[in-house]
Design goal:
Elements (H helix, E strand, L loop, with lengths): L2 H14 L7 H19 L3 H42 L1
Length: about 90
């Protein structure tokens, strides 16, 4: 992602996604994830907990990359639609 695209992405994440924290489905899923994580961690040793944390961090990074690409694709689609509207 180039500098401008990253800047736009960060802007949308920080300024335009505030409503996600009021979304009941998001809140419910966040609580569910926390409870499940605590439950799983209780049954693991220290080394396994570190491995689990690493796995979760990697999954989060993977999801972030997917979200960045989705943002880029959405922006590209918006540009294409804008061009169609202007030419039509």
């Amino acid at each position: 992602m180039d500098g401008l695209m990253k800047c736009l992405y960060d802007f949308v994440r920080t300024k335009r996604m505030g409503s996600i924290y009021q979304d009941p489905e998001y809140e419910e899923m966040s609580r569910s994830v926390e409870l499940q994580l605590e439950k799983v961690q209780q049954s693991l040793g220290k080394k396994q907990q570190r491995e689990l944390r690493l796995l979760l961090e990697n999954l989060s990074a993977q999801s972030s990359i997917e979200n960045e690409h989705l943002f880029q694709a959405s922006l590209g689609l918006a540009q294409e639609l804008n061009a169609l509207v202007r030419s039509g």
